[in-house]
């Protein structure tokens, strides 16, 4: 299968338009997280929290169980800090995953087809609930080709995460209860930011003292 260069270029161009708005959404969620951690008396950087993450998952990815490598590891938000999952940077929602699982979950985060929580949806793609072309199901099938092993491994990962979250239920439950109201505010912030950025960039572009007519199109050979 050949790589689709044109499709990749289109995705990159379209994504750049929302980068600023998404960054503001992340900043907003981080500020909400800071206030929640202050009220709850613990933050993700607390040494006690690091010990609990290590005790729960060791030096393995919390999803696939693979050994973590320094240059292939990501700080993982079980519920992603994005417009769909509305996760927070608080105890019980932050651990460590391999980059491969982090990337795979990020794609599923935009859909959440199997569960309200991002991590539960990601770990529910055992090949029995989705259409044949489901990318998340294919991802887990690639890691555990045997169907029974895949189901057991994903169930075990879900149970392990539930157990890990248990001491931090106050953070987890509060985050879940505020998700609806935060999502409304995020959508307003996102739309306003997009409009502001589009309007201001348009004004600044008009004020540029550049002679665009001098730009020449390069001739290319077939």
Largest beta-sheet characterization: 2 strands, antiparallel
* Sequence stretches where pLDDT stays below 50 over 5 or more residues: none
Mean pLDDT: 90
Principal-axis shape equals globular
Number of helices: 8
Class derived from helix and strand content: mainly alpha
Question: Overview of this structure, please?
Answer:
With 222 residues, the protein is mainly α. It has a domain at 16-167. It contains eight helices and two strands. The mean pLDDT is 90.
Brief sketch in words of this structure:
By secondary structure, the protein is mostly helical. It has helices at 5-16, 19-40, 47-57, 99-109, 118-122, 135-143, 147-165, 169-206, and strands at residues 73-77, 94-98. A two-stranded antiparallel sheet has the order 1-2.
């Amino acid at each position: 299968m050949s790589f689709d260069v044109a499709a990749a270029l289109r995705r990159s161009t379209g994504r750049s338009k929302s980068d600023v708005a998404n960054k503001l959404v992340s900043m907003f969620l981080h500020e909400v997280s800071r206030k929640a951690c202050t009220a709850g008396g613990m933050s993700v950087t607390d040494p006690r929290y690091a010990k609990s993450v290590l005790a729960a998952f060791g030096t393995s990815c919390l999803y696939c169980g693979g050994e973590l490598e320094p240059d292939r590891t990501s700080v993982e938000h079980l519920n992603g800090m994005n417009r769909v999952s509305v996760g927070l940077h608080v105890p019980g929602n932050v651990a460590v995953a391999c980059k491969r699982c982090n990337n795979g979950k990020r794609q599923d985060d935009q859909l959440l087809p199997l569960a309200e929580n991002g991590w539960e949806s990601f770990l529910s793609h055992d090949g029995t609930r989705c259409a044949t072309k489901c990318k998340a199901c294919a991802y887990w099938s690639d890691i555990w080709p045997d169907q029974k092993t895949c189901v057991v491994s994903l169930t075990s990962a879900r149970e392990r995460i539930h157990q890990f979250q248990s001491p931090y239920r106050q953070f987890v439950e509060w985050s879940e209860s505020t998700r609806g109201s935060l999502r409304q505010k995020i959508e307003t912030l996102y739309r306003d930011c997009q409009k502001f950025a589009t309007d201001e960039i348009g004004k600044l572009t008009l004020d540029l003292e550049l002679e665009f007519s001098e730009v020449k199109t390069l001739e290319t050979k077939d």
